[in-house]
Input
Amino acid sequence: MTVDLLSDAVRIDVQTGSHVSPIWIGDGIVDHAAALLDSQQVGARRFIVSSPAIWRLHGDRIGRALGTAEPILIPDGERFKNLQTAARIYEPLIRAGADRASAIVAVGGGVIGDTAGFAAATYLRGIALAHIPTTLLAQVDSSIGGKVGVNHQLGKNLIGAFHQPAATIVDPLLLHTLPRREFRSGLYEVIKYGMIASRGLFDRVARDTRAIFAREPGVLLPAIIESCRIKADVVSKDERESGLRRILNYGHTVGHALEAVTKYRRFRHGEAIAYGMLAAADLAVARGALADVERQALARLIAQLGPLPPIVDLSIGEVIEAVRRDKKVVAGKLHFVIAIQIGATMTIDDVTEDELKSVLERLGLKR
Ligand SMILES: NC(=O)c1ccc[n+]([C@@H]2O[C@H](COP(=O)([O-])OP(=O)(O)OC[C@H]3O[C@@H](n4cnc5c(N)ncnc54)[C@H](O)[C@@H]3O)[C@@H](O)[C@H]2O)c1
Ligand SMILES: [Zn+2]
Output
């Protein structure tokens, strides 16, 4: 990973094999999108993929910046992240004669980025992809690392590919229109980065919560930059999740299970991860691997961000069932990433069902 300070943008590179995938971050840099993409020779022709809602808010500006014709608009929302929606991207590409030299520019949250990214990975066996993420979650997480994909009726993200973006342009000013709950959802992932890799980031989110919610550039921008740097660093070392990249799943074992048992309707992704992080911290304390004051600091910070949807009506049994079905369970063993202090993790692979049951009980789920 290299970090380069340009005049008005920070550049962080994700390096996977011989492929370099730059992330530019800066307030207002979306206005320079065309020049940034030109500098990486991203696509002789560019096709924007976005959603009607996002395009209504930011289309004028981004359309002008990219100077491209009509965007391809697809519905966003988790229930539209499927092959049928991906197919709605292929058709206009084919009709317009998009070729191997064309690129897709995904403008939106994680749903648009994953779906458009999947279309880019598969159209003509792969064309270039650029991301302009418009949610906090997409800016610090989903637009980095090359995982693209769609859901199947039987499970989330079951169909996908690794397709590193040719470029990612992160403009925090786009977040000013983001509803507070969506913003918070992304913030839990920022806290995750703090938990796995940076005490400083964790402390700053705790101290500057109000300024971050107000989206004050002086505090929000550095938090986004540090989050992107952590993810870029991890992905650069382990693109295919054979080891290190698993630490990015901190809080996701229980988090994904909570999302699954509520059919992806109750929680925003980050909210489920917040519970998952609390569960992982509790497990770590129970094992004597994490000091209880550290767990309390996490619980306080999560409480400080606002209320989470209730979990009292969810049964421990069904959540454990969902954990078992999760693709992170390898050969019957339950992998768990735990923090051993704020900013450092370890992976354990011998978590028993009984242990998990007690954790979920203490988290507040019903027996
Ligand atoms: N590929 C990865 O590595 C990765 C990582 C994490 C999550 N994901 C995926 O990301 C998805 C969740 O992404 P998300 O949280 O961004 O949700 P999302 O894409 O559903 O966006 C949330 C909502 O915010 C709206 N929105 C987006 N930008 C806006 C803006 N600037 N102003 C106002 N409204 C705006 C959208 O229209 C949508 O209604 C999940 O499907 C998850 O699986 C992927
Ligand atoms: Zn996540």
In short: The longest helix spans residues 217-237. DSSP finds 14 helices and 14 strands in the chain. The CA atoms of residues 41 and 166 lie 9 Å apart. Residues 51, 53-54, 57, 76-78, 81, 108-112, 114, 134-135, 137-138, 141-142, 145, 147, 157, 174-175, 177-178, 182, 185, 269 surround nicotinamide-adenine-dinucleotide (ligand 1) (CB under 6 Å).
